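Proteins fold reproducibly. Consider a sample protein:
=====
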Amino acid sequence: MPLLLHGEVHLNERDEEEDPYDGEAVFIKDTLPRLLESHPKLRVSLEHMSSREAIDFMEKNGKEGQLVTTVTPHHLMYDRRHAFSGGYRALLHCKPLVKKREDRERLRDMVRKGLTFVSAGTDSAPHPESKKFSSCCAFGVFNAPVAVEMYTQVFDEIGALDKLESFLSVNGPRFFGFEPSTKTITLIKKDWQVTEPVITEDGIKIWPVAHKEHGLGNEMIRWQISQN
């Protein structure tokens, strides 16, 4: 049975709060090595990594079928400047926190390499409007309606479209012992915008990331899944 986790440390040995932006780095530096040493046969997936320290560790220690990682579309697309641009952006309020531009660039560098132990993992969180747009904003990015298109846009920007299929459809299933799906989709390079929420059967609105009004403002998605 594999262990899937996003590791962060928020209290140090003196029971003091760590900087929330450093939680993942502290876990990678101290807790994870001890975990792997104690359980050398444990198969581990580090979910939605976002920090330079975690990326450095994975590039050195990652191994197909043994120690793998997933990457979200929003950590590839955005950095901390976006999360606070023009005020706090509720749709980017998530854990792990969106980090600095340098962290995002290292993440892009990693996926550009086409490593077999790196795959897509959306961490999509469909919080209802009442919890997302509140004084105590719920953590989580709802990216499911645009995830494939966002991944494709990033891989296009970094010149790695030839690595996209393995990242999206092969590496993840392989870790869990599944054969990749034989079904295909077609993506076209076409600008479009997210203009509507997802509405549940109960009439509850759920707002996707990159929404034209509730996102950063007039955001444009550069790729689209073909409906033909």
Notes: Residues 3-182 form a domain with the TIM Barrel fold (CATH 3.20.20.140). The chain has eight helices and eight strands. The CA atoms of residues 58 and 69 lie 8 Å apart. Strands lie at 3-5, 44-46, 67-71, 118-120, 187-192, 198-199, 205-206, 221-225.
